Amino acid sequence: MGMQYSDWGDRRHPSRWMAEAGDAGFWVPDRSEIVTQFFTRYLFFSLAVIYFSTLDAVPQVLFSIEQLLIALGVYFVLNTWFFRQALKGVSLLKIRSAMAADLVIVTLCVIHDPNTIPPSALAFLMVLLGNGMRYGMRLFAEVLGGAFLGMAISFAFRYRLGGFAVNAGDVFFGVFWVTLALYAYILMGRIEGQRRQLDYRSRYDALTGLLNRHGLLAAADNVFDKASGAAPVTVLFADLNQFKAVNDRYGHGVGDRVLAEFATIFSESAEMGVYGRWGGDEFVAILPQRDEATVRQIFQRIEARTQAWSNGNGLPMAVSLGVSHAPRDGHDLMTLLSVADIHLYQSKSQYPEEAFAPSIYRNPLNEPEAS
User: What is the pTM assigned to this prediction?
Assistant: First the structure.
């Protein structure tokens, strides 16, 4: 599918929000949302077929009833194709193409609606709400503009070529439609802000600002899905030594400070990657594949900064680290973490919690491979 956010471009905050070229972006619907949206499209297609099939005639503006039904059939075929494409993956081009098809068929239906106040015009609102409220404010603005344009074109054709005349009912309907559409846009703007906050809180750790476990798993799914589960990546697993002793002696406030500081050290120690707090005093990094020499350099940077902070603040902060590589060690995050944890345990065992003093971890790259 079309490229979304860069796999490695955001070190701390990858999410379900996807962006393509420029500033355009959208929320990615899950499979159930996609099915619901296209089911609604099929429902309104069926209603349109039933509605126009029961008419004896339509205004001779562009099409006859038979030609309009053929146009609806073409829309059905296009909608089915868009549905299959959406199940494979969503991109801005696919979303915009499906919205354009919706707007075109609704415009044709309104043009040929024989009623003075066409009930088919309400379908513009369904296109607006069904698309705009699902993908974010940028696409909401686009579909809102498209709906306004479709309404203007359809009523212009009705008045100029269909023999209809402007009346009080049309004016009321137009004012009502515009008011409702603008109100929905304003309301959606507020909902969008709340949605972003909820998405952030569900994926990011409040203390460190890194991804939490849920966010890491979602980011890992995206990374590995790109390469059918065989993405060439390196996973680092870090565990602070003596952290329990820090909490017991200095209190949780100081412990939180240690966690926040190490999160900064950990996330800044490689040029590019996805970082998160796995839980407690455990941290995970998912990096583009690194060779052993590069990983050793990353470990050394973490070691130096951790030791310097520990010495400068008089607090014992040392770290054990483990590493694994995909696809050599596994094809998913949980498997890779299990391998990295073996290396981490070899390092951690050198520094029991009772040794309440700053220490330097043992580089797992220098340890023999686990059997």
Answer: 0.61
